[in-house]
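seq as requested:
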Amino acid sequence: METLLTDLRYALRSLKKSPGFTIVAALTLALGIGANTAIFSVVQNVLLRPLPYSHSENLAEIWNTYPYLPGFDQAELSPGDFWDFKNQAKSFSQMESYINFPQGFNLTGNGDALRLEARYATSGFFSMLGVVPEAGRGFTPQEDKPGATEAVVISHRLWQQHFGSQTSIIGHTLTLDGRSYILAGVLPASFQLVPSADLWLPIGQYADQPPSHLHHEYSVVGRLKPGVTFAQAQAEIVTLNKQEEVAFPDSHKSWGVYLEPMRDPSAAKLRVALIVLFSAVGLVLLIACANIVNLLLARNAARQKEIALRVAMGASRSRLIGQLLTESTLLSLFGGALGIILAATALRILNSFVPAELNIVKQTQLNGAVLAFTLIMCVLTGIACGLLPALQTLKQDLHGILKEGGRTAGASGGHKIRNILVVSEVALALVPLVGAGLLIRSFRQLLDVNPGFRAERILAMEVDKSQLPQAELNKLTPEQGTALARKESLQFEEIAARIKGLPGVAAVGSVNVLPLGSKISSASRFLLEGQPVPPSGARPIAEIRQISLDYFGAMGIPLRAGRPLEDRDYGQPTIVINEHMAHTFWPDKSPVGQNINLCTLDPKPCLFNIVGVIGDVHQYGLEAAPTFDAYLTGGWVRYFVIRTSSDPAKLASAAIAEIHKSDASLPVTHVMTLDNLLSDSVSPRRFSMSLLGIFAALALLLAAVGIYGVMSYIVNLRTNEIGIRMALGAQPADVWKLIVGRGARLALVGVAIGLAGALALTRLIASLLYGVKATDPVTFATVAILLVGVALAACYLPARRAMRVDPMVALRHE
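struct tokens:
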């Protein structure tokens, strides 16, 4: 300890004597360490932090696979499968489920109507996760049955914002869509399984019908018994699914099943991007370390007389290595302290432009685990940076240096090491640059995709009214259902006429699900009229889009064939389909006039006549393939779309006022422009691209600084040689070629190695790309040319200085 303290005191004095070196080295390390600290804090928060549930390592999610679901690699289980698995599986101590399809309720009776988003869960769901209500209780098994007393549990956010965190409301009645519900409890703030959910209801109230094996709606979570592995549970679930396929062959064809550890849904979206970003900042730190090694090599070369004197006075080489490593580690700790400040600042900036879809990132902070990671990184970085220069210095002929009167005769011994470091920096910088280039090209390709509608000057808002429960809707006769839909359509048309009368409004329409969303609202397996009937599991799926008559015109969706929906289509089995569906099933003829059955899971078919074909609209993002879409009209349609001739945002207040003039109880939410919706749909990709671009630029900057430093050192070292060359007739252009040529050769070797590494590593980001291959030659060539150009630019100043060497001064010194 006494030796360590002595080394620390000497290291502080030594670094204080060289403030320029200390500041440059500390700032260089601060950039690398700060970037790693910031990204690791995000990784730790999103990927490494355990879920906020009791013994979360034993929780597993069970999913179906189905090849006919476009844009999805997993699907929920059917209610029948869930209950069969729950009753038969031996690997689980408990198995529960929830329904993650959003359903809206209007909360009335306490001021203005409030639109709330709801989910359903089994009565044992919260207790299985170890979620203890903040106030009140969860659901009882009796409440989880159809026809039981209707209870509801609310989110912590709703409890705070709307009820003022009053515990006295527990047990009182809430009026949702005109029906009374008992407020059973309040969930804790830490429960963020579905952050947008305001309400949770018992799953028994979801549908007043026996469990079905046809409709896949249940997200299933199970807790493994002690000692049971995920592989064992997976094998059992697969076996049970095969039994279901034997018992219910029609509904199970093409459906697979798999099990995985329970994960945060938001974290799953970010996993690949964060791994890529963490790898990129790791490369940035390696480049920074290479720069520090170069700086330490130059510094130690200038200290050879001092080191030689220490050896002559009896200092052991191991003692000297310890002293030099103490200095480099202390330097790294200075850089780490600055890096923490940079990381804290970077996280504040990061949180300001994190897209709403990735809200989990905003919870990131510098906690104890992150600081411990930074400390370990600083110590390892200091040792890694200092070891090679220390060993290289002690390899020199220190006794010969003393005999030469202190001249650094052995300073040129590190040429090979410096060349290797420059090549490494170039190679390391090329990898994130190629990754950033691929993401930029991919993003531009994505922006060029036609969404299927004209987003400019459209205002959208959700206007939803109270609906009858599904169980009561199922009891209506066809005539009663048609009359109800017509009544609701007329109410919409009245409101639409009011809004259309506003100055600057060109058209008003509505749809049940806005484009570029991420949730299925309504889908149905269908068959063409006269087609052989395959098992239900092998039937294609059409997404049902309920619209108003002016929807296509308001959105600017082109009509390709036939006619749009008209007033005469109310209550009639007529639909409009999209191009993708038309070309897939009627490749050689027009589908207009053809019939399809949209009720293939019901005993009685319902044939719909196709009256028109419209252009494809991207429902699940610009990068997702078009789905099979069927449009019909009738009933209340909750998303209003208003096309204007000026800034649509300025008309929002007037449009809301007209809606409330018609019905003051209608809540208006999610007011946005479609330009913003389009921008938000690509915001996660923009976020990943921007961050990787920043780190790639940082890597390029550090590589350029490293090349400049090495070439400057070489010029200083070879000043006498250059002077002699010029005295013997060499021209300034020859000296230019000597310096720049060396830098160019090192850069080209680094580019060649970096291209090989990038070809292997960029496949990691293949899932983040759209319309561009991970081996895109244009990107690779552009980045290679850019990097060589930057390397040559970094050689410019050292080469200029070499050209100005005075031969007489150099010869006189020699």
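The longest helix spans residues 265-302.
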